Amino acid sequence: MIEARHLRVLRAVAATGSFSAAARELGCTQPAVSQQMRALEQYASTPLLLRTGRETRLTQAGEALLRHASGILAGLAAAEEEVAAIAGLRAGRVRLVSFPSGSSTLVPAALAAMRAAHPGVRVSLVEAEPPRSVELLRAGDCEVALAFRYPEVRGADPAARAEWDGLAVRPLLTDRLVGVVPEGHRFAGAGRVGIAELAGEPWIAGCPRCRSHLVEICESTGFTPRIDFATDDYPAVIGLVGAGLGVAVLPGLALASVRPKGAVTVPLEPAVQREVVALTLPDLERVPVVGAMLDQLAAAAA
């Protein structure tokens, strides 16, 4: 097998015209140069050098190999530099997928810190709710996925608990859900409201996973919510509540970046929380740029 060290020796011999001069250039001994050239000629099955007195010249085969060696060694040097840059966080990329309320709260601070600490690293962002974000991670379409899940409710789909199996999980925060009611609603000034007390209200629901969990929670307290409107857009949910069209339950993150015009929040009883995490593949967790992104997300959550 032709190795890079063989090609470096060939190039040095061709440039200097002798084994001794090549050895000085390479910082090794003349016997080492001679040994490397013998190994290369043995692999090539043809002479690569002509030795006439003190002069050493390349044969036709040697010249052909040297032409390719220059490109190979240049490409290898470029590859080594690029890998070193990625390992040293001077270059590289990370593709991030986040659910919308994470994109508007955790992600901006994490991306700003990442850019300040590692300006050579490129980060891209697309939005997807779980389980789609987890599917993108497993398919290799991103390196980091922000995801969430709710505590298990009796009768819930057991497959949801296995969604993160085999993934590296970085816990970020616990996001408490709150009730959202119109201003002037009978519970608008309440210190706490039980979900069962909202049984007769029209509901505005959020993303599919949040809608599913809302139904599970309500049914566990003895009623099925009448969902009049459903939207993945949290500002739209708040707008509909503010217009007096119903009540809603939203994660705290969803309210952090929205001014609830015409709506007020009330604590829920019993308390309901969702677990927010950053996910990656176990092998990717050891990649410097991925580890740095996970660290910045954790710092933003803290």
Account of the protein in words:
With 302 residues, the protein is an alpha/beta fold. The protein is rod-shaped. The chain starts with a helix and ends with a helix.
Q: Which descriptors apply to this entry?
A:
302 residues, eight-stranded mixed sheet, two-stranded antiparallel ribbon, alpha/beta, rod-shaped
**How many DSSP helices?**
11
Fraction of residues in H or I helices: 40-55%
Radius of gyration: 32 Å
Question: What would the principal axes of the Cα set say about the shape?
Answer: rod-shaped
Low-confidence stretches: none
Q: How many beta strands in the DSSP annotation?
A: 12
The major β-sheet equals: 8 strands, mixed
Strand content: 15-25%
Mean pLDDT: 88
Structural class call reads alpha/beta
Order of helices and strands: HHHEEHEHHEHEEEEHEHEHEEH
Q: State the separation between the terminal residues, measured CA to CA.
A: 53 Å
Task: List the SSEs and their pairings.
Layout: H1 4-16, H2 19-26, H3 30-44, E1 49-52, E2 55-58, H4 60-87, E3 93-98, H5 100-103, H6 106-117, E4 122-127, H7 132-138, E5 144-149, E6 168-182, E7 193-194, E8 202-205, H8 208-220, E9 226-230, H9 234-242, E10 248-251, H10 252-256, E11 263-269, E12 273-280, H11 288-301
Parallel strand pairs: 3-4, 3-5, 7-11, 8-9
Antiparallel strand pairs: 1-2, 5-12, 6-10, 6-11, 6-12
Helix pairs in contact: 1-2, 1-3, 1-4, 2-3, 6-11
